[in-house]
Amino acid sequence: GRKGGHKGRARQYTSPEEIDAQLQAEKQKAREEEEQEEGGEGATGDPKKERKSLDSDESDEDDEDYQQKRKGVEGLIDIENPNRVIQTTKKVTQLDLDGPKELSRREREEIEKQKAKERYMKMHLAGKTEQAKADLARLAIIRKQREEAARKKEEERKAKDEAAMAGKRLQSLSLNK
């Protein structure tokens, strides 16, 4: 067979009826305390209210009151936690799709970055940025160097042609003699 728990005694279970009775008693106590705090009017007690609290059919209202009871100092001090986010569910009909959409910080920074890049490219193509001015100056220097190199090549080619022509003249003159 199976042995009992490690403490050596049998387990005892409470029935659901006993649990309901305990909850009803706690709710009744909480109501009486609230009535006493409000001004003592509930000290005499209203028989209709007592009957309602004992009825199990009216347990829905009692559950709401029980959940609203605060623990510890919460009843005395109104605490507002800025970090606590209360989630509210919205229906599809309540959603505002036409309104302005708020962007996250990263999305805003990304859009600003793209706009700045576009502005820079426009300025660069117009030649107004420092880098564009440096590029244009470099291009002008390179063009001058290439023009000079082309001119020197042309002069050298003309010099060769003239030398070749002079050589041919000398040969033709020597042959004619």
Automatic annotation (TrEMBL):
Segments forming domain Casein kinase substrate phosphoprotein PP28: 81-158
Region feature (Disordered): 1-113, 147-177
Pfam families reported for this sequence: PP28 (PF10252)
Gene that this sequence comes from: Pdap1
Superkingdom of origin organism: Eukaryota
Source organism (scientific name): Stercorarius parasiticus
Biased composition (Basic residues): 1-10
Biased composition (Basic and acidic residues): 46-55, 98-113, 147-163
Protein name, per record: HAP28 protein
Feature: compositional bias, Acidic residues: 56-65
